[in-house]
Design brief:
The protein folds into 4 domains: about 220 residues, no CATH class; about 130 residues, no CATH class; about 90 residues, no CATH class; about 200 residues, no CATH class. The chain has 28 helices and 12 strands. The strands form 4 sheets. A 6-stranded mixed β-sheet has the order 1-10-3-4-2-9. The chain has a two-stranded antiparallel ribbon with strand order 5-6. A two-stranded antiparallel ribbon has the order 7-8. Strand 7 and strand 8 form a beta hairpin. Helix 11 packs across helix 13. The radius of gyration is 33 Å and the shape is elongated.
Length: about 650
């Protein structure tokens, strides 16, 4: 057992670059650590009650493994790779830095300069070079040293903050906030507790004992090892056990694994506001390499399958089971591990791209369907297009069209989950791109069954008595209304429809023009339709249909929706109420179009519904479709009979 003071004495710790970065959070682990330190009690002999911080597993670094610029500090000292315990050591190092940076003179009767030398860094004879007692290996050490430890000897660099970097920064801010307002006596007390009362059980892994197999059995405090981490260590372990493999080849393969995992962790955490899940990434890649019983592997299935590929009977579990690949895969050899590692590290850049894209077409696809099957298909598609140096827009539009058709009642092209099969084919053989294109084009060329579409929308209006939301139940309704908005924009400005509005998708919601809740301003409009029915049940159905039909729905920004949702159509000066018609006049193109309608009633609702249905068939690439009056009635008002009763028509045309 060692105190922090003993732990850092002539000792330097390095976090290997193949480990994930700093993962402790200001919401959980940092407050727990701070509370633990604050609650350490004094003892009668002017010391503190010992507090156990857990076990550290370390691996002694050979001199040749120490970076050359740091070797001058190795004389009389020891360098360790931290196998397990990096989260705790990182936290303690940041806290020590915060305490030492806020005090100019001393703690515990020792100068701040002496304490920095003991806990933070050694300097060479000229004072121009530093070797940190704790830091990362590889490029990640720059952020820790420059941004967290404020090392003025380093040159400023352009740096994109990753999620792990953000955690480091938030840890520093957390501890600064805790100690900045403290008196010197309180800070000195905290420093004494950290350096003399915190105990680590340090285990140095014996030379010759496989480090990765040790690491595979460990967990960080509150952070269990992910499947990705366990896989890395499994591959490291297998590398050491390879038969008929030169030592130099093993070293090369280990370096490839470390480099690959460093790249993977960097990419997954590159966007600090959207850190990608490690095991979700691994299951996506495995779903491209091996055919699951379902469409894609779940995270649980991934752990089982990926370790079967790299187990003692691995020859039973081929790396790739797709058609056209070699029918036999080796058990475990250099080539199999090396190929898998390289493919995984290459795939992560595509995975990051499809999960953090600014491509409008891809983001529109996700509005229709964002399952893993589509994401791995997009990875395979973009990869294939990159190989053949072709643009992606036409292929993405085909995917969008298929998904929109799938989302439209009565129109089905393919189960979106089956894109996983196309993804595997394309990923394993990019030359299949033309064949896949031909397949999708053929599916899109199929005719639209108008009666099926009409019946599907009629079903939305008439079913689910206890949840009567009509067109609201159409999953693509909001998407369709946005497409209509873009169509109006295109007509006015003669520009590509993809340059407008979808960026506002999340801030917009669907509005009932004739309000869905009862309001005195709309009683006459409702009665004009519902009073023609003879029973309570038929009247309730009629009101429900009138309010929830397509023509009565539009999209509004959230704030406007709230402020005008129950207002009358026209201005009401007596109540000082602005009508919806006036408010819409300065809004989106859909709103402006609505504002030109003099009265909002059953006829204008029907007319607008017909206009939207006509546009729907254009959107479905069936622009020549002409609906009969009865088909309009059924699609927009549930049935011909309900429409005719509400409009008081005896099978005559509405305009007569």
């Amino acid at each position: 057992m060692k105190t922090v003071s003993e732990l850092f004495n002539n000792t330097f710790f390095r976090i290997p670059d193949y480990q994930r970065g700093y993962a402790w959070k200001k919401e959980k682990q940092l407050p727990e650590t701070w509370d633990d330190i604050e609650e350490i009690l004094d003892t009668e002999n002017n010391g503190f009650q010992p507090h156990y911080m857990g076990t550290l597993f370390v691996e002694r670094m050979k001199r040749n493994d120490i970076p050359e610029p740091e070797r001058w500090a190795a004389d009389g000292a020891v360098f360790y790779n931290v196998v397990d315990g990096q989260q705790r050591l990182t936290t303690i190092s940041i806290l020590l830095y915060a305490l030492l940076s806020l005090e100019k003179n001393s703690y515990m009767n020792r100068t701040i300069d002496d304490l920095k030398k003991l806990y933070l860094y050694e300097t060479n004879a000229t004072g121009k070079s530093r070797v940190y007692h704790f830091t990362y290996s590889g490029k990640e050490n720059y952020y820790l040293q420059y941004q967290i430890f404020c090392d003025e000897t380093l040159v400023s660099q352009v740096w994109t903050e990753s999620a792990y970097d953000k955690n480091l920064r938030e840890a520093k801010d957390f501890f600064y906030e805790k100690i900045n307002g403290m008196s010197y006596e309180d800070r000195n007390m905290i420093f004494r507790k950290i350096t003399t009362a915190l105990y680590f059980d340090v285990h140095e892994i014996e030379e010759g004992l496989d480090v990765q197999s040790v690491f595979e059995t460990m967990n960080n405090r509150g952070k269990p090892l992910t499947v990705l981490e366990k896989l890395k260590n499994r591959l490291m372990y297998l590398t050491e056990k390879l038969n008929n493999c030169e030592t130099s080849d093993k070293i090369h393969l280990r370096d490839n694994i470390r480099t690959a995992w460093g790249c993977i962790y960097t990419e997954l955490a590159r966007n600090p506001n959207k850190v990608l899940d490690e095991d979700d990434f691994l299951s996506a890649h495995l779903s491209l390499c091996r055919k699951p019983s379902d469409y894609v592997f779940s995270e649980k299935q991934t752990e089982e399958k990926v370790f079967k590929m790299f187990c003692n009977r691995a020859e039973r579990y081929r790396l790739n089971e797709s058609e056209g690949m070699s029918p036999q895969e080796p058990g475990v050899d250099f080539e199999k591990i090396d190929r898998y590692v390289k493919d995984l590290s290459t795939f992560v850049s595509w995975w990051y791209q499809v999960n953090n894209t600014d491509n409008l077409l891809i983001n529109k696809i996700y509005l229709l369907y964002s399952g893993k099957e589509i994401k791995i298909y997009l990875c395979a598609l973009l990869r294939a297009l990159d190989i053949v140096k072709q643009p992606c827009d036409n292929d993405l539009r085909m995917v969008e069209k298929i998904l929109f058709r799938n989302a439209t009642p009565g129109v089905g092209v393919r189960d979106p989950r089956t894109f996983a099969t196309l993804a595997r084919e394309l990923y394993c053989d990019p030359q299949k791109l033309e064949g896949i294109r031909a397949t999708l084009k053929e599916e899109l060329s199929g005719p639209i069954n108008v009666d099926a579409v009409v019946g599907g929308f009629s079903h939305l209006l008439g079913s689910y008595v206890n949840n009567p939301v009509g067109y609201y139940r159409w999953n693509a309704l909001k998407y369709f209304l946005f497409e209509y908005e873009n169509e109006l924009y295109c007509k006015k400005y003669n520009q590509d429809t993809e340059k407008m509005l979808f960026k506002n998708y999340a801030d917009t919601q669907i509005e009932h023009i004739l309000p869905k809740d009862e309001t005195p301003f709309w009683i006459n409009e409702v009665k004009d339709f519902s009073s023609n029915f003879s029973t309570d049940d038929s009247r309730k159905l009629a009101i429900r249909v009138l309010k929830n039909t397509l023509g009565n729905l539009t999209i509004l920004k959230d704030k406007k929706n709230t402020s005008v949702s129950k207002n009358p159509w026209s201005d009401d000066p007596t109540r000082r109420l602005t009508g919806k018609k006036t408010r819409y006049a300065t809004g989106s193109f859909s709103e402006i179009e609505l504002s030109k309608i003099e009265h909002w009633n059953k006829k204008t609702i029907y007319d607008r519904g017909k206009k939207l249905l006509d546009y729907l068939f254009i959107k479905l690439d069936a622009s020549g479709t002409i609906l009969s009056e009865d088909q309009y009635k059924k699609a927009l008002f549930y049935s011909v009979e309900l429409f005719d009763t509400g409009f008081m028509i005896n099978h005559e045309h509405i305009n007569n």
